[in-house]
Amino acid sequence: MQTSVEDPRVLEFDVRTDEMLVNMGPQHPSTHGVLRLVLRTDGEVVSEVTPHIGYLHRCAEKIGENLAVRQWIPYTDRMDYLAAMNMNLGWSLAVEKLHGYAPPERGRHLRVIIAELGRIASHLVGMGAYGLDLGSFSPFLYAFREREKILDLFEQACGARLTYSYLTPGGATADLPAGWTTRCLKMLDEFEPILPEYHTLLTSNAIFVKRTCKVGVLTADRAISYGVSGPVLRGSGVDFDLRRDGEPCYTQMYAGYDFQVIVERAGSYPATTGAPPPPPEAVLGDSWHRFYVRMLEVVQSISLVRQAIALYEAEEGLDHGQPFKLGAKLPVGETYLETEAPRGQMGFYLVSLGQPNPWRARARSSSFCNLSVIGEIGRGCLIADIPAIVGSLDIVMGEIDR
Amino acid sequence: MAVTLNRALDALTGWLVGSIGDDAACGYALAAILQAGMLLNLVAISGLVFIWLERKIAGRIQDRLGPTRTGGRFGWLQTIADGLKLLCKEDLMPGKADWLLFRLAPYIGLAASLSAFLALPFSGMPHPFVAQRLDVAVFFVLAVLGLEVFSVILAGYSSASKWSLFGAMREAAQVVSYEVPLGLCAVTPVMLAGSMDLVTIGDAQQGGFWNWYLLHSPFAFITFGVYFTCATASVNRAPFDLAEAESELVGGFHTEYSGLRWSLFFLAEYGSMMLVSLLAAILFLGGWHGVLPLGLGSGGWLEALLGTGIGGYLGALLGLVLLLTKGLLLVIFMMWARWSLPRLRIDQVMTTCLKYCTPIAAVCFLGATLWQASLPNGLLLRPYNAELLRAQAAGPVATPPADVLIVDTAGGRP
């Protein structure tokens, strides 16, 4: 059969490209645990991203039905293991809401100290791991160096370094040890001047800006419709933070505190010393903004910890809140409470039939909703952008799979 | 080095000829083997040192200590311990891999990296330590170094892994981007020295740092920056390590490699790093000549003191140390960049190389040409060593044999 160059079959045979399905994970260096993404690629261009989850499922919610509410605290540790304190807090507050209990003032300030330190530690990991996703190794170790100091403080408070089980329904398992607040303030004083270093290495680094700006743009409408929360939502320009906008039994914990919700308002972020302004390339809702929101939230959390320490020390009483009795029966009823964990809205649902253990215990994970947008914003980008987008969502698989 | 060694081996050759038979080739073969051994060891030992150095530098940059146990306080023997571990590892090959190419690929890379050292001089006239002095040394080194790409592409293709294939394709895309500006940058010193012979280029920069081609003109200065950027890309170092981008492609082209074959890729990488750094030192940083004219070279006080024989060799040896020091500093700079910078994306690498580096290199070449034409003595009115250059130009025959140039114009196409 005679063919010529004009023959479309020849042309198609020569230049036609095939799509390739690539399995990214669950054993992959930058899928943050055991996430599996199936990529449909045409060369380097990704046309479809499908996340597959469940590799870390441990039936935590079912186990919760067979344990007293305080016994389930260690299981909440293992949900978002990078912010275990905030998980403890979420469950404790949900149980306390059912009881209609409010911890004493000293316990309230203690919880703010611990929760905000947990937020700093979590955002440090998010920042460092994001550098790692983009091929920059050193910021990861710098972030862990500072996180270690926070973990040291947590260890002094509760004896554990990762799964604390410290905040518990009723208050905390122990009061802060003597001299702890001094050491904490010293750590913060050392930590705060280091933040511009991170900004130099990542936030305003030319290659970092090139890699993250206009990558994975998530508009505000879409962010709301997917139910994303936390820094991912605020990075899209939605002014929403449960610490300010949440239910009264959660927001009263932050009553009397002065902090700003980090979000772009009228084209600019709340003024933060040492932070570079957004580069002209950045678009609201891209990976750079999500990262930037986390960086600025760390500064807010530092200020919150300082305020909380001052209030904690000014408190007259020594009662930090006694943990509920292990066998204490729950009031009949159901409750749901969402708190602002470092990764977004962490909700706990609890139904009680009057037993010490709940009839139903469920968790609503922020990372789950945050991950769900990957199919939307990961379409049409390059393979190298996939780690950049997943990293900017800052997911923890333990929280998604539970 | 060939001349030196051959002269030193004359007695040995004579003895061999006497004992083995009437064939001087034996002596030359022996000399060649010795030289090859010396070059191999140079690359291998520098590879060992660089891997250790990289770990120490990475450690210090990252607020760690790096290796401290194996071999005393500074972990000197860490690389050897790692090498032994790699030797003992199981030799794995994916079931669907192309067995021949999979095994061949690491050796191609290593051979290319090592062969390029053949034409690299380590000291200048009158005792050039060079395995084979070539009139087209710059061309040879860049061409042979370019062969290393085949190893990456073959390794990625033959691994039967999608990630490896991605790594290979990225390398192929990257190589067409950086080779063009790299060649353009290397042409500037060639033009300034009027020779492609690396010995001549190096010796043309003698007499202090103000004579280095780096400071010849602003254009040459920029050319050096562009050259070094492209050289970093050519040896697959961060921020251009896309072919093995571990956060994206798991391991890229070497995902499926393990044990000794995997380590051969790294030996080749470190060898190439050293090669491009030494080449940069010769082309732009005065090569084996010191920062200040201390008279260590030919006609200096060393020769006056110890005679042209021993004094000359000592001077050449000092030149070798100087060159290696300059190369080492450039290598350390590459390591510093690797542990500080994020990785570029493939389209950004191609944009950087093709849209920025290539035009800049071309304009700088033009600028340096005009500068040389209008200010032949350079900006700092350097003492132009015309006699020396003339003597060297007369040394090796610069014109190729005539028969090479004959082009078959009569024959038609098949």
From TrEMBL, chain A:
<dbReference type="Pfam" id="PF00346">
    <property type="entry name" value="Complex1_49kDa"/>
</dbReference>
<dbReference type="GO" id="GO:0051287">
    <property type="term" value="F:NAD binding"/>
</dbReference>
<keyword id="KW-1278">Translocase</keyword>
<comment type="function">
    <text>NDH-1 shuttles electrons from NADH, via FMN and iron-sulfur (Fe-S) centers, to quinones in the respiratory chain. The immediate electron acceptor for the enzyme in this species is believed to be ubiquinone. Couples the redox reaction to proton translocation (for every two electrons transferred, four hydrogen ions are translocated across the cytoplasmic membrane), and thus conserves the redox energy in a proton gradient.</text>
</comment>
<protein>
    <recommendedName>
        <fullName>NADH-quinone oxidoreductase subunit D</fullName>
        <ecNumber>7.1.1.-</ecNumber>
    </recommendedName>
</protein>
<feature type="domain" description="NADH-quinone oxidoreductase subunit D">
    <location>
        <begin position="133"/>
        <end position="314"/>
    </location>
</feature>
<dbReference type="GO" id="GO:0005886">
    <property type="term" value="C:plasma membrane"/>
</dbReference>
<comment type="similarity">
    <text>Belongs to the complex I 49 kDa subunit family.</text>
</comment>
<keyword id="KW-0560">Oxidoreductase</keyword>
<comment type="subunit">
    <text>NDH-1 is composed of 14 different subunits. Subunits NuoB, C, D, E, F, and G constitute the peripheral sector of the complex.</text>
</comment>
<dbReference type="GO" id="GO:0050136">
    <property type="term" value="F:NADH dehydrogenase (quinone) (non-electrogenic) activity"/>
</dbReference>
<dbReference type="InterPro" id="IPR029014">
    <property type="entry name" value="NiFe-Hase_large"/>
</dbReference>
<dbReference type="GO" id="GO:0048038">
    <property type="term" value="F:quinone binding"/>
</dbReference>
<feature type="domain" description="NADH-quinone oxidoreductase subunit D">
    <location>
        <begin position="322"/>
        <end position="402"/>
    </location>
</feature>
<keyword id="KW-0813">Transport</keyword>
<keyword id="KW-0520">NAD</keyword>
<keyword id="KW-1003">Cell membrane</keyword>
<keyword id="KW-0472">Membrane</keyword>
<keyword id="KW-0830">Ubiquinone</keyword>
<dbReference type="InterPro" id="IPR022885">
    <property type="entry name" value="NDH1_su_D/H"/>
</dbReference>
<dbReference type="InterPro" id="IPR001135">
    <property type="entry name" value="NADH_Q_OxRdtase_suD"/>
</dbReference>
<keyword id="KW-0874">Quinone</keyword>
From TrEMBL, chain B:
<protein>
    <recommendedName>
        <fullName>NADH-quinone oxidoreductase subunit H</fullName>
        <ecNumber>7.1.1.-</ecNumber>
    </recommendedName>
</protein>
<keyword id="KW-1003">Cell membrane</keyword>
<feature type="transmembrane region" description="Helical">
    <location>
        <begin position="310"/>
        <end position="336"/>
    </location>
</feature>
<feature type="transmembrane region" description="Helical">
    <location>
        <begin position="172"/>
        <end position="192"/>
    </location>
</feature>
<keyword id="KW-1278">Translocase</keyword>
<feature type="transmembrane region" description="Helical">
    <location>
        <begin position="104"/>
        <end position="124"/>
    </location>
</feature>
<comment type="subunit">
    <text>NDH-1 is composed of 14 different subunits. Subunits NuoA, H, J, K, L, M, N constitute the membrane sector of the complex.</text>
</comment>
<keyword id="KW-1133">Transmembrane helix</keyword>
<dbReference type="GO" id="GO:0048038">
    <property type="term" value="F:quinone binding"/>
</dbReference>
<dbReference type="Pfam" id="PF00146">
    <property type="entry name" value="NADHdh"/>
</dbReference>
<keyword id="KW-0560">Oxidoreductase</keyword>
<feature type="transmembrane region" description="Helical">
    <location>
        <begin position="136"/>
        <end position="160"/>
    </location>
</feature>
<dbReference type="InterPro" id="IPR001694">
    <property type="entry name" value="NADH_UbQ_OxRdtase_su1/FPO"/>
</dbReference>
<keyword id="KW-0830">Ubiquinone</keyword>
<keyword id="KW-0472">Membrane</keyword>
<dbReference type="GO" id="GO:0016655">
    <property type="term" value="F:oxidoreductase activity, acting on NAD(P)H, quinone or similar compound as acceptor"/>
</dbReference>
<dbReference type="InterPro" id="IPR018086">
    <property type="entry name" value="NADH_UbQ_OxRdtase_su1_CS"/>
</dbReference>
<comment type="function">
    <text>NDH-1 shuttles electrons from NADH, via FMN and iron-sulfur (Fe-S) centers, to quinones in the respiratory chain. The immediate electron acceptor for the enzyme in this species is believed to be ubiquinone. Couples the redox reaction to proton translocation (for every two electrons transferred, four hydrogen ions are translocated across the cytoplasmic membrane), and thus conserves the redox energy in a proton gradient. This subunit may bind ubiquinone.</text>
</comment>
<dbReference type="GO" id="GO:0009060">
    <property type="term" value="P:aerobic respiration"/>
</dbReference>
<keyword id="KW-0520">NAD</keyword>
<keyword id="KW-0874">Quinone</keyword>
<dbReference type="GO" id="GO:0003954">
    <property type="term" value="F:NADH dehydrogenase activity"/>
</dbReference>
